[in-house]
Write a structure and sequence with these properties.
By secondary structure, the chain is α/β, with parallel strands linked by helices. The chain has helices at 2-22, 25-45, 52-57, 70-80, 116-122, 135-139, 159-164, 171-176, and strands at residues 48-49, 61-67, 84-85, 88-95, 106-109, 129-132, 144-149, 152-157, 168-169. The strands form two sheets. It has a seven-stranded mixed beta sheet. A hairpin with a 2-residue loop joins strand 3 (84-85) and strand 4. The longest helix has 21 residues, at 2-22.
Length: 183
């Protein structure tokens, strides 16, 4: 029995090692970066205050809306579905341009999102925190943008747009933000 068990365990370890070595490093890095962004998205939301009127329309949850990115939606769901923000549950929705964005508290627009300007036009004058990861997002007045600097994930905050949306970002988070540079 011990010999057979050793053989099965060895086969399993070899299989895992082969799978790891067969997986391209770029795929492993992309998955790690996506997981970091999902964790950041949740952590950033802990330092944001929405107007009371925004929270009164949806009393039970803080709604994360993910535009056109099923894989990131699933990853964020795995990461934060059971967490709470100020005693409110977290709801995660996959949305597109036909969706009702009035229920969104946070709108994430990935690099692959098409028509970023249309999403912005749908939330004009609404207290929705926009978070993205592209130069297009940033130059079109996105609020928080993720970018890589010195091989680290960083973020920048557009304070003017945050204030325009009647949101408040706590000073602790503002101190951690860095200036956006498209390299």
């Amino acid at each position: 029995m011990k010999i057979r068990r050793y053989f099965l365990n060895t086969k399993g370890v070899i299989g895992v090692l082969l799978l790891l070595f067969a997986t391209p490093p770029s795929l492993i890095a992309a998955n790690l970066e996506a997981r970091l962004k999902a964790a950041y998205l949740f952590r950033l939301s802990l330092f944001v205050e929405w107007p009371k009127t925004s929270l009164s329309t949806n009393k039970e949850s803080i709604n994360f809306c993910i535009a056109e990115n099923q894989s990131f939606h699933n990853l964020l769901f795995e990461t934060v579905a059971t967490k709470t923000i100020n005693d409110k549950s977290v709801k995660i929705s996959l949305i597109d341009l036909t969706s009702d964005l009035s229920q969104c508290h946070i709108l994430f627009l990935s690099k692959s999102t098409s028509n970023i300007n249309k999403y912005f036009s749908l939330i004009t004058d609404k207290p929705v925190l926009t978070i993205g990861e592209s130069k297009e997002f940033y130059v079109n007045n996105g609020m928080i943008v993720f970018f890589e600097k010195d091989n680290r994930l960083r973020f920048s905050i557009n304070e003017a747009m945050v204030k325009k949306a009647s949101l408040v970002i706590r000073a602790q988070l503002l101190k951690l933000a860095t200036e956006f540079r498209d390299e």
